[in-house]
Design brief:
mainly alpha, 149 residues, 7 helices
Length: 149
């Protein structure tokens, strides 16, 4: 394995863990209704969570752009309403949509794949394909917005 591929693998695993941490924090905020600063502080105190730079960027970005992110998700639901989506699945999709629209350093395909993997791990077996379908539709909207079509 070359040094470059080792660095890419390390970054990939690091980002995957930071996405999981962001998922935990954003999911918790749905129920706590506390500020993200309070939730992160509680996570550090209660479970010795190490909250990395990318995790902070994700949670703050999702928090800041939540209305827009939810708009993209809702616009791409077919025969569904956002209120019918599990909080787990919605949180996972919010992270992915944030990355897709607001993070130029993350390829769209990576955001979708990572969201599908999170859904497979934390949601129901069918949620992985649901997340894939919705985010695939969102990616087409992104292409149109950026002039790709």
């Amino acid at each position: 394995m070359t040094e470059n591929s080792k660095n890419n693998e390390s970054r990939k695993n690091g980002r995957r863990e930071e996405r999981k941490q962001a998922f935990y924090l954003l999911f918790e905020q749905i129920f706590q209704k506390d500020s993200m600063d309070t939730i992160m502080e509680d996570a550090r105190d209660a479970r010795d969570a190490e909250i990395g730079k990318y995790t902070k960027e994700l949670v703050r970005g999702v928090e800041e752009k939540l209305e827009e992110i939810d708009g993209y998700i809702e616009a791409n639901l077919k025969s569904w309403k956002k209120s019918r989506i599990s909080k787990v699945t919605l949180t996972i999709m919010r992270i992915a949509v944030y990355e897709m629209f607001y993070r130029e350093d993350v390829p769209v395909g990576v955001s979708i794949n990572e969201a599908v993997e999170l859904a497979k791990e934390y949601a129901t077996p069918s949620d992985g394909s649901f997340v894939n379908g919705v985010l695939g539709s969102v990616s087409k909207q992104l292409e149109k917005k950026s002039g790709g079509e």
